[in-house]
Amino acid sequence: MKLLNKLIMFLLLLLFILTGLILLTGINPELTDKISSLLYRNQNESSDALSILVDDPESDSISGDSISNKDGGPSENILELPDQPDGANEEQTTEYQVPDEDAITIPDDVAGKSGYQPIQSNEEQIDEAAEEQLKEQLGTGETGEGLTFDALFYPYYEMLGESEKQLYRQVYANANALNLTFAPVRAVSVAQIRNVFSAVYNDHPELFWLDTAYSGKFSRSGELIEIQLQFNRTADNIEVSKAEFEQNANEILSNAVGLSTDYEKEKFVHNALISQITYQLSAPMNQSAYSGLVTDQTVCAGYARAFQYLMQRLGIPSYYVTGYAGENHAWNIVKLDDGFYNVDLTWDDTPGAEYDYFNRTDQDFAATHIRKDLSVYLPACNGQNYRNLEQSSSDQSGTDGGNADTTGYTYRRLEETGVSQDYVATSLEQYFGLCYQQMMQSGIGNYSIQNVLEGDALMQEWYQMHQNEGYKSGYLERAMQDLGAGSCQMQITIETLEGSRYLITHNISLQ
After folding, report:
1. Do residues 148 and 62 both lie within one domain?
2. Per-residue confidence (pLDDT) for residue 223, from 0 to 100
3. What's the pLDDT score for residue 44?
4. For residue 7, how many other CB atoms are within 10 A of its CB?
5. CA 480 to CA 459: how far, in whole Å?
6. Radius of gyration, alpha carbons of the chain
7. Residue 14 lies in a domain
8. What's the number of domains the chain is made of?
9. Which of 143, 237, 403, 425 shows a CA-CA span of 20 to 30 A to 383?
10. Separation of alpha carbons 168 and 147, rounded Å
């Protein structure tokens, strides 16, 4: 009987304690959180990172599981990403859907036109003595304190957590000041510095001297002690390189800035770049905007970086996208008033395919392009208003009226251009003669001349000639010599007209 009474008293006491806890947590909700954290501490550790595998070429999936390095040591195979930041651009709320890589099919006419080189890193672990020596010798260089980056124009910066943003600002500031070696402003891991360097590189095409590689020295615990950047040869004479870069950029921008809409500016820059750039896999510094704007020979990375820079200068958000298109590849995303679009200048720089990859949606690109690494977190491209407004010459097909394609796009007639029949060329020799004649009539100064090419075959021949710079010996050098000109700057735009005709406009500055 006594045993039963003790059991009843114990149960009553337990009930009293539980009732008291319920009342306390109702009065003080924070107590609930503290109790929960004690009960579920192990499950909640390190749950603020989103991770994706980046070194496995077969993997393009995003994992929602957190992967953390408890001892802070190197974790080379993991690219750690934060959750979507609170201040991120609202346009980015629609997520990019990663296509199936096995379904990718590359058209024959663009196969091999790539050349993007992923970020390369060289990590070295040092002992305690070397660590102490570096800490005594190294300074942080430029800290980047006070720098701000607009999320609309610098989306990779916005992908980072606050500590990584601090390091991003430091890396950017030191790259801008051409400081090769410096100590990080805060403790970071291998995965974090790789993430930060990629973000800086992808956001800033104006740092054209910054190579796609860096080195880092780490302690045995995995803490980054030294960052070493790498610069290309333009850094050897940076002021001259910057002047050349800006001069070539301004030649395009001066003709684009006065156009009335962002779409018209985008189209002008697109056409100007594919007109002046030649795809060349062996081109020097071909990962930089400098190769696209100054040397005019580059690969996909150079096309995309040059386009990104010019669009930024025009106040139009444009992002550098890296991924897979049969092999490593780079292209752009551009923001117009109704949303985002994919643009691949490299693949558009193909005879007859001038607009095949211009202002396309993610669905349009799903069969040929897959974003990788940080680029999967760029906005989804679902814009419609500026999709399929332009027609590549190889896609032209007339209706009964002869001036509209199957999408309803209407081509101008020759009469609507103001160009007379006298300036319609049926051969390259005739075209050269017309260009020379018009330049001689216009003389020294800034002006435009226009000629029309008759037929698709001549357009293809003209395109190959222009890629090989045959226009120089064809008419330009002779005109400059006869006019006594010392320099000539020229931008060329192409408009498809009714009846397989092509209006070639030359914007010339002859001095």
Report:
1. yes
2. 86
3. 34
4. 10
5. 25
6. 29
7. no
8. 3
9. 403
10. 10
Angle between helix axes 29-39 and 2-27 (nearest 10 degrees) is 120
pLDDT digits (tens, 9 = 90+) for 127-147: 888 988 888 888 999 999 999
- CA-CA distance, 358 to 267, in Å (whole number)? 9
- Return the number of other C-beta atoms located less than 10 Å from residue 204's C-beta: 24
- What pLDDT does residue 28 have? 44
202 and 81, same structural domain? yes
Burial state string for 39-77 with b = 16 or more CB within 10 A and e = fewer than 16:
eeeeeeeeeebbbbbbeeeeebeeeeeebbbeebebbee
| Residue 328 tokens, joined | 């490593």
Establish if 41 belongs to a structural domain: no
H helix runs in 28-161, sequence order: 29-39, 41-44, 128-137, 155-158
Which residues span the domain enclosing 191? 49-89+119-236
Give the integer Cα–Cα distance in Å for 450 and 419: 7
DSSP class of residue 233 equals G
Paired tokens of 51? 């991770």
Closest CA to 450 of 487, 469, 489, 424: 424
* Contacts for 407 with CB less than 8 Å, ≥ 6 apart: 388, 391
The answer on 355 and 443 residing in a single domain is: no
pLDDT at residue 9 in the model: 62
Integer Cα distance of 19 and 27 in angstroms: 13
Report phi then psi at 215, rounded to 5: -125, 155
What residues in the chain have per-residue pLDDT under 50?
21-93, 397-409
